[in-house]
Amino acid sequence: xxxxxxxxxxxxxxxxxxxxxxxxxxxxxxxxxxxxxxxxxxxxxxxxxxxxxxxxxxxxxxxxxxxxxxxxxxxxxxxxxxxxxxxxxxxxxxxxxxxxxxxx
Length: 104
Known about the structure:
By secondary structure, the protein is α+β, with helices and mostly antiparallel strands. The protein is built from one helix and six strands. It has one helix at residues 2-17, and strands at 27-34, 39-46, 51-59, 67-77, 83-91, 94-98. The protein has a six-stranded antiparallel sheet. It is flat. The two termini are 26 Å apart. One of its GO terms (cellular component) is chitin-based extracellular matrix. GO terms for molecular function: structural constituent of chitin-based larval cuticle. This is Endocuticle structural protein SgAbd-6. Residues 1-19 form the signal peptide. Keywords: Cuticle, Signal.
């Protein structure tokens, strides 16, 4: 159930970050490493100023307390020219975003 909440929260975050109109955006950098059962990581940078990094690690693999911890960040340039960044952790404690523009 918690994993579904984490994945749902991350999908919402990505949808919000990409909700603005898309023009001719190019991928400037892309890295992806699927390190197998124990986790993954990826990052990308786009020509419109959007960037994202994320790393997931399986904790307590094979046990009753197995969970995944995800850390990452996403940045984008808003229509007003301001760059926004959200750093986040998603783990057994839920989705925890932080950003200068977010309420505390």
